[in-house]
Every structure is written in structure tokens, then in C-alpha cells.
Amino acid sequence: MSPELSSTSLQLAFVCPLSAGMHARPASQLAGVANNFVSEWALTNLRNRREANAKSVLSIISADIRHGDRCLVQVSGADEQPAHTALRRFVEEVLPSCDVPLAVSSPQTRNSMPRVLQAAGMNCYFGSSASPGIAHGKVVVVSAISLPKGLTAEIATDPEQELKRIKLAIAAVRERIGQKLTRSSSPLAEAVLRADLAMANDVLLAEKFAEQVSKGKSAGYAVVETGKFFINLLRQSESEYVRERAADVEEISVQLLDEMYGADLETTVLPLQEPSIVVAETLGPQQLLALDRHWLRAIVLEYSGSSSHALILARSHAIPAVVGVKNARLMFSPGQEVVVDGTRGVVVPQFSAAVQRFYEREQRTLQRQKERLADDPSSPAITRDGNTLEVAANASSAEELALAFENGAEGIGLFRTEMSFLERDRPPSEEEQFATYSQAVRLCAGRPIIIRTLDLGGDKAAPYLNLPSEENPFLGYRGARIYADHRELLQTQLQAIIRASAHGRIQIMAPMISSLEEVLQFKDEVAKAKRHLQIQNTPFQSDIPIGIMVEVPSAAFILDQLCSEVDFFSIGTNDLAQYFLAVDRGNARVAGLSNVLHPGFLRLLKRIVDEIHAAGKWVGMCGEMASEMRYLPLILGLGLDEISLPAVKIPELKHAVSQLSTADCKSLLTQIIACREKPEIDRLLASAQASPSAQPLLSEELIVMDSDSRNKEEAMQELVDSFYIAGRTQDRHQLEEALWAREAVYSTGLGFGFATPHCKTTAVTANSIGILRSRLPIDWGSVDSSPVRMIVLIVMREPQTDNGHMQVFSKLARKLMNEEFREHLLAIEDSRNMMRYLGEELDISVSCVGF
Amino acid sequence: MKIIAVTACPTGIAHTYMAAARLEKIAKNFGHEIKVETQGAMGIENKLTESDIRQAQIAIFAVDIEVEGRERFNGLKVVQVPLQEALRNPEGIFRKLQV
Q1: What 8-state DSSP symbol labels residue A90?
Q2: Is B68 a catalytic residue?
Q3: Does A813 contact B21 at a Cβ distance shorter than 8 Å?
Q4: Residue A301 pairs with which residues in a beta bridge?
Q5: Which of A150, A360, A506, A712 suits A486 as a labelling partner, its CA being 20 to 30 A distant?
Q6: A159-264: CATH number
Q7: Containing domain of residue B40, as a range?
Q8: Segment B71-87 mean pLDDT
Q9: Which CATH number is associated with domain A10-98?
């Protein structure tokens, strides 16, 4: 219908007063009013000339009405007079009160990005980092709207019947929402339910269903296609608010399908055909494993917990992942090219040349850092005071072991066995398991491997076990608790493991032990399996060590009893922290409380290690805490025998160990355990990083002689990156921000084409001098307004420990005022000579090799 | 002329010393005798003694932060400039002293 004046209609013009535009709530209210009348309600957005039927929420939303848009509504029909009055009342009285605050990403998040990206005005979606790394690829969306098995191409024979099915489903869904509404106590939840209800009632949606069905499609097909049609339509809107409404359409579509087909619905598995970024609401471990790893580049999830098993797997396979990206499936279109920055937790669509350049450089930086650490992966991790820490890898399949040993793993500290039990109709046979375990043992080539028996339940379910769905699975029927009811399953697995022990150094570990009885039963089962194999004359290693996971707090308080029954222990920090601190690690609202730095938790760990050692037994750690470099001083302080972590982190960890001293770490732990407040803990931990004396002031890798940086941001980033590659900082953001904070006082450009950015920070491991000589003139805001070619970076480590270095810095600063010295720096041809010259001039020893 | 000076910047790592070097050099060009105390990350260095202060005709403070022990200079004529001035235009500072 056109917005022109018509003799048979009444019209009303208005300007949209809502800062978030005409989003679902006002749209559903307007449709609610309109549907009380038989007259037609035609709405036109005069900005984009889009026309809508005001009786349909979807139609109104699709008109993309934004703040300040002029709109015209025309009502025509038998009751147009009262309809017009109702419309006027709505526009004047109801509409203005429908406003909601605009959701904007907090400046705090935006400021956490590197300055290069900030300066490039990067447009990105924020989530949080779940697995580091950079990846580039095309979006593949795991849709929640899917058909039951075998229905994909179904053609219906009786359209009437199909339409009836849809109508019945709509009625049922409406009824369900209505019931929820009567129970709802929060206004926000109520608003959401009302929007869902309006969507279920939507006339446009009903029209589309009817259209599909009249073409001979089945009810299920009609719902799927209609859902996808509207989701695509809404996704194209320029308003984030409207794009988010696609979530409501999805929700209703899923509910309708669920109503029609119930449990027959299939979870979609995607075939990948090119470098792909998989975008999903959430992913189970089995879904992740089903993806073709050859093409899988990164994962983006809407769900926000970071220790789910799928994400642990992603980390162990070095697949970058960003989680907690709101409505990710609706924000990105299938096939769209994006960059996933798993390190910073953002997804970047539509990148400019500057952003692309940043990520190309970033990829080079990460590659160089990795190469540098991997110089000699097989050397053991020895602290500065000569103590060795055994470093092992976590793995979930035999295929990962090659990667583990390439990275310098000295054994496998945790071999998870669940994966081969998932996504299948019956458990793997003894032969199949034996093949897996013996292959793994052979690949270990004499190195020890700790095989953990089945740990199902929680977020890992297998259909054939008929595990009931539980209100609180992490406190439920999982791990060793299911063994009593599934003895056969456990026997089969134990026999397979014990048989494989003939080929190498196997240790068996039981998960989720909370009592002595569980241990005794487990040992009985092991003995039984051995007897069985003995009768069959099957060879195995007779003295296989038996151990348990320490992940339930109750186990930590009966260690004296447990020590007399088992040979070794491995601390699972994820579950132990979750249970001990009463924090659901998947719940974003409390996940922040899951802090392994809680003095109570550290005391618990210390108690565990000390008690086990007092009994002369061995204790390792295989949880996430072991893979966080900043906790390493605490781990060394605890005096663990071994730590086991994702393979890709091992080189970095071994290097970090070599920079620390066990004695210092022990006293640090004692101090931290006594701390009362978090800032104090953070400060102590920061001060415990590598000792300054281990690294010279200047090393060749901190000298960039022929930089192609184009501006101040890039040059600063390049210098910070060189610190990162050299292992002098783990926190590039903190270092960069400290430098920029100094620049904010006044520019460090000192004229003559020189700049001396500098800062004091806890983010570096040692006092350092960095040099960058650029090919291009860089504007630095210098005192003489001339561009800069030579950048001399001075970073002082806090807390300060070496006054000698400060004297070198002041000498350097003074020399920079000397013309001859400056000319010389500009003329030197390569980094080696730069090193030599600075070494002589400043009278310092320099390092041409790395650490 | 006998001049004493104090340089101090917020971080005390670089500019304090660059300004000191600059003031020393330019003072010589102008034929002045100068002693510069630096107040940087290492604390006070090349500290001005009571007799330095007594003998000086003028003090230059090229500072971005409060001068430590300012009371030492009570009674002495002081020219205070932002530290950056000692880098940007040190000659200007000395020219000002002569008029």
C-alpha cells in the first residue's frame, strides 16, 4: 500500500522516538493493538520507503525503523475510526515508554585492544578468549533449526494436514509460553516471553508457513525454510537490535520443530570444504571431534564458559576459539570472511587494510615466538637453582601424541579415554580399545603414559549408558560413580589397558574419586581384570601403578588413607576449584569467582602436595592451572613432581621454568597464602616472574633495523612484539599501555628524528633496551615536529632491583643528546654492529644469542 | 655566570638525563659554569651542596614534577620551565637569564 493520501483511509505520521529503534517489544505492542481491529494497518518507513503490515511484528521489525525515522500509518476498513483513535493513543502514550538503553560495547573492552587496531577504527565483536591464536576463514553457522532425520527432502501429500500440524504446534507453543508468563516474576523475562508470544502469533509468519505448505512442502520443511527466510531478512538490518530479533524467530522455529518432532531432531554435523570458522551456540566435545580438522580454523561460540571439554580440546589442538559472542550465529552470515583473534577474544568482520596488516604481522610474531621457544624442545625443564620439573602433555587421542613429543613432552600425564565412547550407539569393544591404547603406548616409546579410565557424565554423555538428564550433572552421576552400575564396561576397558601395558609404561588413573570405598572397589576391578588375563595367559606388566585424580575436595582430606592404597595422584584443578569454591565454571556470572589464586584454594593445594609427599607418593597436576604461565611460580612453589598441559604450551612453559628459582617460588607461595587481599596477591605474583639478572639489558632480538612500520602505533607494536618474541613480556597489552601512558604526558619524540619511548612496568621480565630503525618517516609528535626514524625504547622492570641498569639508562639518555652518537646510530648497517656499538658506548655486556 | 639547575620528569628514566645533558652543553656554549642535579628513578644524583647553592647566581628548574628539597633554594632567583623546554629550546632559557 502506498503512503499517499487515500480518501478511504485515516493516517497518522510519527517520528520514532526510540533510541534503539522499533525493536521487538514496541513492535509486538503495536501489532497487539492493530490486531484488535478488522481494518488494514499499513506502516511505511519514510526514510527507506519500506512498507509493513502493522499487524505483524516481523513485518514491522523488517521495516528497520530507527531512532528519528519518520513513519506513516494508514488504517482503512470498517472500523478505521476507532482504529485510528487507538493508533493515536499508542503513538502518544505507549510508544515513548518502550525505550530501552542501547547496548554498546563498554569502552573498557574496546580499550583493551592494541593501539594499532584502535587507530584503525576496527569494527569487531567482543567475546572472551577461550583458545589463543589467529585464524582467518569463512563462516559456517551451526544452525539450531534443523529437521528430523530423513525429512530433508520430504514432500507432503496432503497440504491441509501439514498446515494443521503447524497450527497445532503453534497453539501448543503459545500455550507453553502463556504458562511461563503466568509464573514469571521478573519484568525482563516477561518482556522476552511477550515478544516470543507475539512472534508465535505473527500473521506474517503464519502466511509464510501457509505459502510453503501450499507448494507441497512438509510442515517441518515449511518451518525450517520460513525460519531461515526471516532470520536472513533480519540479519541484514543495520540495527543490531533488529538483528538480535532473529534470535526470537530461531527460538520459535526450534520450539515448533520440537513440538512436531520431539526427540527425533538431529544435531547437525557440518561438512567443511574450505578454511572455516565454525559459529555455534555451543559445541559438545563429540560435535567438535566430528568437524573436519583439516578445514577447521577457529571456533566462535555464543555460550560463554571457557573450561567446557570442547574448549579444552580446542586448546589441545591449537584451534583458536572465542566464546560469549552474543548472537554470533545471527551476526555473521554463512560464507562471510572473518578473522578470529582467539588471543584477544574478538571476531573481526570487514577488515580494513590496516587491520589486515596488523593480523599479518601478528601471525608472523606468533610464528616467530613459537619457533624461538621450540629451539630445543626435548631439553628438560630445570629451574635456575637446579630443580627439574617433569613436563607431560594432556591428550585425548593417539593422533595427538606426535604433536606432544614434538613439543617436548616427557610423557603423557593425562590420556583421556572418553572420546572413543561418545557419539556412537554402543561402547567400543575390548579389541578396539586395546588397539587405541597399545598404539598410544607404542608412540610413547618408553615414556610414561597415565591412562584415565572412563569419565562420563557431567557434560559428556553416551546414549547407551542411559544416563538420566540431571538437574546438576557436575554434582551427579559421573566419573567413577557410574562404575558400580557398569562393571562390565569398566572391566572391558581395564582389560584393554592392562593388555596394552605389555608394550610400555602404562599407569592407570581413576577419575572423580571422593571416598576410600571407591578406591578399594576400583582396585578390586583392576585385580579382577588381571586375574582374567592371567587365566588366558595374556602378557601384561604386573606392577602397573594405580592412581587417582584429586578433584573432589573430600579426597583431599583423607589423603592419609588414600596414600596407603594408591601409587600416585594427579590434581585436576578445574573440577577441584569448581567444587571447592562452589562456582559453576560454565556460568559467566560467577566464573570470575573461580579463582585459583584464592588463598583458600592455594592452601588446599599445598596441603594436598605436602601430605602426599610426606607419605612418599608422587603427585602431578593436569588441570588448566598448569597451563597458565602466570601461575607457574605457584606450581613450582608447591613442589609438584610433574605437570601435564596442552602440548602447544610446553615450549613456553619449559622456558619459563628455566627463568625461575624453586627457592624463591616456595617463599612466594608462603607469602601469597598469607595474603588477605587480591591486589596484594597480584602484586606478589607479578614480582615473581623471571629474575632480571638472567637477561642482559640488550639483545639482538630487541633490535629491528629495517622496520616497515608506517605509524607510531605500528612501530610501538613492533617493539612490543619483539619483547614478546624474546620472552621478555607475556603481557604485551600491559607493556604497550604503559608506553602509551607515558606518551600521553607529552611525546617522547626528542627531535633530530629520534624518539625515546619508555616506561616502568611489571609486564617485563628484565630491564631492557629496544631499538627500531624505520624505513619510513614516522610522525611522533616530536618537540621539533620532525618525523622520527630512530626509536630507542627503554623499559624498566618494576619492582626495581638493579640500580646499575638505571645508570646505563641515564647514560644512554645523555648520549642521545650528543650529535655524533646519533649520527652513528643512524649509519650503522646491521643489528650485530648496533649491538656491538651500544655495548661499547654504554659499557655493558650484550647478548647476541637468545636466552 | 654560575648557574645551578635541577631536572626531573615523571618516570625519571630518560628525560631527566637528556635535559641535564642538554643544559650542561648549552651552558658551556654561553660561557656559563653550571651544575645540574638530576632527580630521577635513581633518586637525587649530582646533588647540589649548600655551597653550590650559596655561590650560584641563579637556578634553573627544568621539571615536570615537584622539586625535591625546594626549600634549599629559598632566597635564590629561580627560573622554572617545563622540562620539555630544555630539549626544545635550551638556548632560549639561557637568553632569558641574561636580560
Answers
A1: I
A2: no
A3: yes
A4: A280
A5: A506
A6: 1.10.274.10
A7: 2-98
A8: 93
A9: 3.30.1340.10
Could you confirm whether A758 is annotated as catalytic?
yes
**Going edge to edge, which strands form the sheet with A10-15?**
A10-15, A70-76, A40-45, A50-53
- A450 SS3 class: strand
Using a CB-CB cut-off of 8 Å, the residues of chain B touching A759 are 11, 13
- Domain over A125-142+269-346 is classified CATH 3.40.50.2000: no
A84, A136, A655, A758: which one is catalytic? A758
CA dihedral of residues A81, A85, A86, A92 (deg, nearest 10): 160
Residue-range domain boundaries for chain A? 10-98, 125-142+269-346, 159-264, 389-687, 692-842
- Residues B1 and B58: beta-carbon distance below 8 Å: yes
* A403-422 residue pLDDT tens: 889 889 999 999 999 878 87
- Evaluated on CA atoms B68, B69, B71, B77, the torsion sign reads negative
Q: Which three cell numbers stand for residue A330?
A: 545471527
Tell whether A748 is within 8 A of chain B (Cβ).
yes
Nearest alpha carbon to residue B3 among B64, B85, B90, B68: B90
Q: Is the dihedral of CA A327, A328, A329, A335 positive or negative?
A: positive
Cell numbers linked to A205? 509468519
What is the per-residue pLDDT across A447-502, written as a single tens digit (0 to 9) for each? 999 999 999 875 666 778 877 777 777 888 888 998 999 999 999 999 999 999 99
Q: How far apart are CA A124 and CA A103, in angstroms?
A: 14
pLDDT for the residue A271: 81
- Spatial CA neighbour of B59 closest among B88, B32, B41: B32
C-alpha cell at A238: 543495520
Nearest CA in chain A to B15: A813
**Phi, psi at A510, each rounded to 5°:** -100, 140
* Residue A342: other Cβ atoms inside 10 A: 27
CATH of the domain at B45: 3.40.50.2300
Which residue, chain included where needed, has cell 494443521?
Answer: A164
Distance between CA atoms of A588 and A591, rounded to whole angstroms? Answer: 5
Name the grid cell of A694: 638472567
Query: Span A692-842: which CATH code?
Result: 3.40.930.10
Q: Can you name the residues that pair with A795 across neighbouring β-strands?
A: A759, A768
pTM of the model: 0.64
Q: Is B44 within 8 Å of chain A by CB?
A: no
Asked if omega into A545 is within 30° of 0 (cis), the reply is: no
Please report residues of A whose CB lies closer than 8 A to that of B25: 817
User: pLDDT exceeding 90 applies to what percent of chain A?
Assistant: 47
Q: What is the ipTM of this complex?
A: 0.91
Per the CB < 8 Å rule, is B41 touching A784?
A: no
Task: Match 557431567 to its residue by C-alpha cell.
Answer: A458
B85 touches chain A (CB under 8 A): no
DSSP conformation letters of A620-641: EE-SGGGG-GGGHHHHHHHT-S
If one counts the domains in chain B, the total is 1
Cα angle for residues A107, A112, A114 (degrees, 5° grid): 120
Task: Report whether pLDDT(A425) > 90.
Answer: no
State pLDDT tens for residues A579-616. 999 987 666 677 666 688 899 999 999 999 999 999 99
* Burial tier of A336 (Cβ tally within 10 Å: 0-12, 13-18, 19+): middle
Give CA–CA dist A273/A294, Å, rounded.
9
* Segment A534-556 mean pLDDT: 96
CATH of A389-687, one of 3.20.20.60, 3.30.70.270, 3.30.70.20, 3.40.50.970: 3.20.20.60
User: In chain B, whose CA is at the least distance from the CA of A801?
Assistant: B42
Q: How far apart are the first and last CA of chain B?
A: 13
Alpha helix ranges (H) inside A24-158: 24-34, 57-62, 80-89, 107-111, 115-119
